[in-house]
Amino acid sequence: MYGKTQAALLISERDSELENNLKTNRELLDTAISNLGAYIETGNLDIRARQEKLKPLCQQAQEREDKAIQEAESLAKKRDLVQEELENEKLKLSKLQEEIEKDENQLFYAEVC
């Protein structure tokens, strides 16, 4: 009978050890989960802070891009107007050259006759 009692005692001690190990492991797991959650939250806060810091820079870049696009469009319109004016002036010059040639021909015929 003594062997059964001793075996039961050993089993009870082993069960108690396993329960203590299980409890310790659960506590360690809970601590690890809690620490991980805090680490993730800290990371999220850091990301949000960086996003807020970059937001004005992105807005400024967008404003500069919009301004540059407007200036480019304005310059393109001015270029088109200048090209149109140049074509008009070329036409005027061509007409003047024709008139000069006509006047020179008339003058030549007037001198010859």
Automatic annotation (TrEMBL):
UniProtKB keywords: Coiled coil
Annotated protein name in UniProt: Uncharacterized protein
Coiled-coil region list: 58-106
Gene source species: Trifolium medium
Lineage: Eukaryota, Viridiplantae, Streptophyta, Embryophyta, Tracheophyta
